[in-house]
């Protein structure tokens, strides 16, 4: 900010097509951030008052001063499917310290950097009359994925359940839709971040392994939601069932596979199934070996796209 001004006036003077109405819309959705001065890239050790904070409509008349830092996401990522969902009907359990809900596809679990309104957390809080920013995410599901989601109402529960996931005291079972069959049993891959292109992981099949040893390692190694050792990450899943689906109206053969997730890595099922030659229906980021043309052939999913992946069961031991 190079001159003192009212926030909405500043937005209108600097951004084409923005007036008081559209400026308030950007504030309402959470697409405007401000700090007293340009903050460092890392917030570690930076006092809270010096960090960038998300502005709201209540800040519309905020007086900006010379040197203030302002970040505006003029085209925030939208999740319009959030308005088509019966959110009260999505609630499976509404406990004193937690909520278990069915997450619909095409909606983010948590607010994004440019959209605080159209997320599972925000919509459930609004529908159930819970104070804003009360619900706490404990685990994540991709935007295109649907299924069982546990949210904490208290920090204590969020920590306790997060510890249970990290210690593998919960069993996660997914249903996967593909156009190719996958073998039953344990599948093991190592994954590393892709060096370029869209944010994704690269999965390499581990062919020579001892199944009993791999399962034993999971009991002593952090293989839960909080990552694990540095370097290549070991990814392990168990295919429980794989059934061909019959649909006379569908010329393409499809398979529904029931999978137990034994480790909790980013995009694990998506990447492992693609590496096995069976990308998920709706997959845009991972391809079967030999079927990709490099970074030009892969992309992140759009918010309006579904993925053949459902978090169908969550068992607490």
From TrEMBL:
InterPro entries: PsdUridine_synth_cat_dom_sf, PsdUridine_synth_RsuA/RluA, RluA_PseudoU_synthase. Residues 286-317 are annotated as: Disordered. Residues 296-307 have a biased composition (Basic and acidic residues). GO terms for molecular function: pseudouridine synthase activity; RNA binding. Residues 98-275 form the Pseudouridine synthase RsuA/RluA-like domain. It holds the Pfam family PseudoU_synth_2. GO terms for biological process: enzyme-directed rRNA pseudouridine synthesis. This is Pseudouridine synthase RsuA/RluA-like domain-containing protein. The lineage of its organism: Eukaryota, Viridiplantae, Chlorophyta, Mamiellophyceae, Mamiellales.
């Amino acid at each position: 900010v190079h001159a003192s001004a009212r926030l909405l006036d500043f937005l209108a003077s600097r951004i084409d097509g923005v007036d008081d109405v559209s400026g308030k819309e950007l504030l309402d959705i959470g697409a405007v951030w401000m700090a007293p001065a340009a903050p460092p890239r890392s917030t570690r050790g930076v006092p809270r008052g010096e960090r960038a904070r998300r502005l709201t409509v209540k800040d519309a008349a905020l007086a900006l001063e010379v040197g203030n830092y302002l970040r505006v996401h003029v085209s925030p990522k939208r999740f319009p499917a959030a308005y088509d969902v019966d959110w009260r009907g999505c609630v499976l359990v509404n406990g004193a310290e937690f909520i278990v809900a069915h997450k619909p596809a095409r909606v983010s679990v948590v607010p994004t950097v440019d959209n605080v309104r159209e997320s599972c957390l925000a919509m459930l809080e609004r529908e159930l009359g819970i104070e804003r920013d009360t619900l706490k995410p404990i685990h994540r599901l991709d935007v295109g994925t649907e299924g069982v989601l546990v949210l904490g109402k208290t920090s204590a529960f969020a920590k306790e359940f997060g510890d249970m996931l990290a210690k593998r005291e919960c069993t996660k079972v997914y249903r996967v839709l593909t156009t190719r069959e996958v073998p039953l049993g344990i599948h093991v891959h190592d994954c590393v971040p892709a060096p370029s292109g869209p944010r994704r992981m690269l999965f390499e099949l581990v062919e020579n392994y001892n199944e009993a040893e791999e399962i034993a390692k999971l009991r002593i190694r952090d293989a839960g939601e909080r990552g694990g050792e540095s370097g290549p990450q070991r990814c392990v899943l168990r295919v429980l069932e794989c059934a061909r689906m019959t649909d006379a109206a569908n010329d393409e053969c499809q398979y529904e596979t029931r999978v137990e997730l034994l480790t909790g890595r980013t995009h694990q099922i998506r990447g492992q199934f693609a590496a096995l030659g069976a990308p998920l229906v709706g997959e845009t980021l991972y391809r079967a070996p030999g079927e990709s043309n490099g970074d030009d052939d892969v992309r992140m999913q759009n918010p309006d796209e579904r993925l053949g992946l459902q978090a169908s069961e969550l068992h607490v031991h």
